[in-house]
């Protein structure tokens, strides 16, 4: 299992894409460009396809040394040995997931625009808390809206804070300045004309260094050289 650090940067969330080879290609570009964490989420897939895609993406993330989190389904995360799970308000109890996931697994919680919910998540064993949507989101146009004060007021919980919802490279820096540790993005990277360049623009908001090739990627590059 990969460690949960670094704890700041881009938290890429997969789009709904039932074409598994295409999804893997899209994710490879984003992860290789420096995405910090990856969350697998596919609301359109059935159980069998979700299991297949989750396993394939986990192998990809392992090659790049990037933690992979499964959205909604902590049972699937435990079954495939993913690095963690992310739960919304209708996805079961955090305490139940924490009891089943292996030691060191990353457990995240959607807290929307509710600081009290974030406090309860922290008490139940969450490793990070997510707030949003901060801006109008093409992925979830009817999502509840959150304010920057949530990021500031939740600092006392001493957990990484994830911002989500309509985040672009142009508005992301305001979230980082307010205390966001990770920027969760779907369309901002996967629908970008140049996804790798979009990743770098998000990372620039944290003034992070460019990614270094993983040992596995370096070996593959040497093998493919003429």
- Stated plainly, the CATH topology is called TIM Barrel
Q: CATH class, anyone? A: Alpha Beta
First-last Cα distance: 34 Å
Which sequence of strands runs across the widest sheet?
A: 1-2-3-4-5-6-7-8
CATH superfamily: Aldolase class I
How much helix, percentage-wise, in residues?
40-55%
Would you identify the regions where 5 or more consecutive residues have pLDDT less than 50? none
Largest sheet descriptor = 8 strands, parallel, barrel
Principal-axis shape equals globular
Overall pLDDT level: 90
How many helices in DSSP terms? Answer: 10
The fraction of residues in strands falls at: 15-25%
Question: Helices and strands: which structural class?
Answer: alpha/beta
Helix/strand order, N-terminal first: EHEHEHEHEHEHEHEHHH
Walk me through the structure:
The protein has 226 residues and is an alpha/beta fold. The protein has one domain (9-218): TIM Barrel. The chain is 40% helix and 16% strand. The protein is built from ten helices and eight strands. The chain has an eight-stranded parallel β-barrel with strand order 1-2-3-4-5-6-7-8, surrounded by six helices. Helix 5 links the parallel strand 5 (106-112) and strand 6 (128-132). 42% of the residues are buried. The model has no long low-confidence stretch (mean pLDDT 90).
């Amino acid at each position: 299992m990969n460690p949960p650090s670094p704890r700041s940067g881009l938290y890429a969330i997969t789009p709904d894409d039932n074409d598994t080879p295409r999804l893997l290609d899209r994710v490879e570009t984003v992860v290789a460009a420096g995405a910090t964490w990856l969350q697998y989420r596919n609301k359109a897939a059935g159980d069998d396809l979700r299991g297949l895609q989750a396993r394939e993406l986990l192998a990809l993330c392992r090659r790049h040394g990037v933690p992979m989190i499964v959205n909604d389904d902590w049972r699937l995360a435990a079954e495939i040995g993913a690095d963690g799970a992310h739960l919304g308000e209708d996805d079961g109890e955090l305490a139940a997931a924490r009891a089943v996931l292996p030691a060191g697994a990353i457990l995240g919680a959607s807290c929307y625009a509710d600081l009290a919910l974030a406090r309860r998540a922290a008490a139940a064993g969450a490793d990070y808390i997510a707030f949003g949507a901060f801006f109008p989101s093409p992925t979830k146009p009817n999502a509840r809206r959150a304010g920057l004060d949530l990021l500031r007021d939740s600092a006392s919980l001493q957990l990484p804070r994830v911002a989500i919802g309509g985040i672009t490279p142009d508005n992301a820096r305001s979230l980082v300045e307010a205390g966001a540790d990770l920027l969760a993005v779907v369309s901002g990277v996967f629908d970008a004309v140049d996804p790798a360049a979009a990743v770098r623009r998000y990372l620039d908001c944290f003034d992070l260094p460019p990614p270094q090739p993983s040992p596995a990627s370096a070996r593959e590059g040497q093998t493919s050289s003429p």
